[in-house]
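Researcher: Quick one. two chains, 485 residues in total.
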Amino acid sequence: MQENGSLKLFKHGPTAEVRLFALAFLALALLVVDARWATLEPVRQGVSVLLYPFQRIMLAPRDGVERVKGWIDAANEMHIEKEAIQRQRIELAQMATHAAQLAAENEQLRRLLNVPDTVTQPSIAVEVLFEPTSAFNHHLVFNKGSSSGIQPGMPVIDEGGVVGQIVRVTPFTSEAALITDDKLSIPVQLLRNGLRLIAFGGGADGKMEVRYLTAGADIQPDDELVTSGIGGLFPAGLSVAQVDSVHRDSATGFAMALASPLAHPERHRHFLVLQVDVEAARRHKEALNGEAGGLR
Amino acid sequence: MARRAKVEVTRRRAGLSSLEPIDTTPFRVAASPGFIWLTVALVWLFSLLPWRVWQPAPDLLLLVIAYWCLNEPGRIGMLTAFSFGLLMDVHDGSLLGVHALTYTLAAYGTLMLSRRLRRFNSVVQCLHMLPVFVIAKSASRLIEGWLAGEWLGWSWLWSAFLMALLWPLVDVLLQMPQRRHEEGDGGAV
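Model:
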């Protein structure tokens, strides 16, 4: 087959066809195994540790430019920030008195009902390293990984609410799926009436879907969805999304609602990863067998 | 002047030396391995930057690897293509093997067509490379789509078109060091 020209090439090795079949078969095997099972995670982690210094080197100019820009704008930014903080302080002062009343009331009620106090969640601040180029998912890569204590399953939040969930961790980086990713589902609750639902990532258009509603469910546009805390991975009470529209299908008797996320991961570079007890949540989930909760 | 040159030529023709080519330097000098690996490494590093988020962005790494597969098949082959594809898979966080499959297929296609391609200039070569890029990309897109359960449209075709369009430019850029070498030798003769 390989008569001239390339014959010299493969004198000591297998022919081009053999190489092609071996490598293509290997690639296909990797694809199928990686799509179905998690056995290739160590390989991926090893390669990504090798890749990490190169990624940082290539992103260094961008980080440098941003740092210089930060220095130049420092005075101006501080001025703007100061005004914002002043305003916020006044607003917060009002809210704080209100919250103190509520907290006291809440504590009293909890004592009455014999419910244990909510614990504050330890968290890790992370920064976006880059956005991976994949058309099939909405992911972000952060600059901290398992060496900082991040584990797959931990929720990621910003000031607006839930941003996503960590799906993959390497020693120095971690990858989060955004809540608009179609592999993610979050147990939520309507803030208005406490109706428990599950919100799913809606794929491409940056929306979330609330499925499996009965046609008569009390859900309206502008309702706010917050995490319900069911499943154990997402702490209760984080805002998730706001309902845009409700579609009721009288033929099937089911309804579906579209909601826009309240967090804006495209506007920020810093996020918080909440260090929830992933293992406990998993055991809890297994015990409950099939309660809705995060990862796949 | 002209007459003297003519005399010179006729005298040369008469002798045995007329059988020798006037210019004995080879038409194309082989690229140095250092240069080949440097270009591949630089394009790979450049591919780590976030410009590829744009769907129809041309895959410059694949382009350069295919180019060296054609011109220096002894140094860059399918195994190199596969390895760099795997690195890109890990960087993109996509399924392992997506880029590896594309790169391997493109490298094979280039090697298969190399005998034919070397007879043409880069503009005709790019017409040949278009189906290679389209087939290589479509194979991994089909499998990726099958595994993910959805088809993501045809924007990747633009990527293949842009890569084919960029082929002559890559040819000019990557042949530059070898060309300069030729001219230098030509001047000496």
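DSSP finds seven helices and no strands in chain B.
Researcher: Thanks, that's what I needed.
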